[in-house]
Fold this sequence. Notes:
Shape: globular
CATH topology: Rossmann fold
CATH architecture: 3-Layer(aba) Sandwich
Largest sheet: 5 strands, parallel
Strand order of the largest sheet: 6-4-7-8-9
Strand content: 5-15%
CATH class: Alpha Beta
CATH superfamily: SGNH hydrolase
Order of helices and strands: HHEEEEHEHEHEHHHHEHHEHH
Radius of gyration: 25 Å
Distance between the termini: 98 Å
Number of domains: 1
Amino acid sequence: MSKENIFERNPILTVVGFLILLFLVLELLSYFLIYTINPNYGKPNQFNRELSGYYVSKNTPNFKHGTFKDDENQQDIVTDEYGFIYPTPINKSKDPNTIRIFLMGGSGLMGAGQTQRYSHIYPYPKSIYAYNISIAGFLKRSLERYYPKKHIEVINASSYTKTMHQSFLHYLETVSSFNPDLIISMDGFNDVGSISTGQPYKRTELKWLQRYVDLSNSHHPPSISYFYNLLHMLIVQPDNIPLSCHSAELYEPSFYSLDLYLRQKGMLVDNSKRFTQILRQYMSVLQVDNVEFIFSLQPMLTRQVNKELSHIEENFNSSVYPFNPSGLPLFNLPDEFPSTLDDQAKSLKTGIVTLKFFFDDHLSQVLKSEVESAGYIYVDFNQEIQSLSSSQEFYTDYVHLTQYGNQFAAEKLAEIIIKNQLLAEE
């Protein structure tokens, strides 16, 4: 019997054709998956931060972030050519009718969503808030209502993991050239290591510099195969930030006692003087530039002075380390990374008692005195939120805020700006 079927007559060609078709399908599917996972794929820098010769790392320009929106018309968060977040292009030259405000701080002020390791307790959005529902957006609208004749710009120059001394250097390098009227700094959590070691610059280099050197060296052109690139992305390629600890670590807050804090208080008082010295230097530069300044301690879940915590917030606070053990910060070991489990435990304890006791017992009052002595405004947000009830969900994790939290912080800042007449009306 003769073979009528072309596939039966040419089995080798059939197999080859099937394999080619399968490869093309995998390539097409991989292409769509790659750009779904990482919309910045194929760009010169596909990580949200990059190496900086000024302050170790900075926001990557023209980077598209995953964005949480409560309205489909809201824009995606894409950093501009300077690494700033703002809905429209910014001109360095400032119109006389423009009020220009820069926000400078870490991921909380940037608008980051929930850290992954908290989501098993209660899930919140993980992406960055759209500009309109971030602290920057809420603040801009509040000020526009009070200054209707002015063009208000609230530019977000914050970044993941950013510390106060990095904001100071960022101001010197870039922000000062934009002739700002007001700088709003919101710091605290990322600075715990700097405060407790007394060596902020050295600590930042030890913790982050080599990581960003490695990232800078890893920007190879994509392979010709999208399927290979997808496998590489999922299995081999390093992440753009330290991985969160996805499993619930054993965390018992009572281990971090007042007695432990009192034994370390003398060291913390001495080491924190370097932090306040850098803050004085920062304010001195702003005075020379005739720039108004609000320095604020960001809301921090672990502090004793706080809002009345909700049931969810209580679970956050009692069940999960505020610091990520898998990306351990340096607290009391300034010369090297903690290498043993015992060293890591000591390091975590120092960081947690700093958060839990030192801000409330000592540092907040010292910072208030320093800032007000320089003629600037000091805000401790943990003190400002004490009247909030447990029915108001404010935190999404250790330091990031709900949409309500963003709005509360922005309205409090607007109230302070207006009350203290920090911006010229004419």
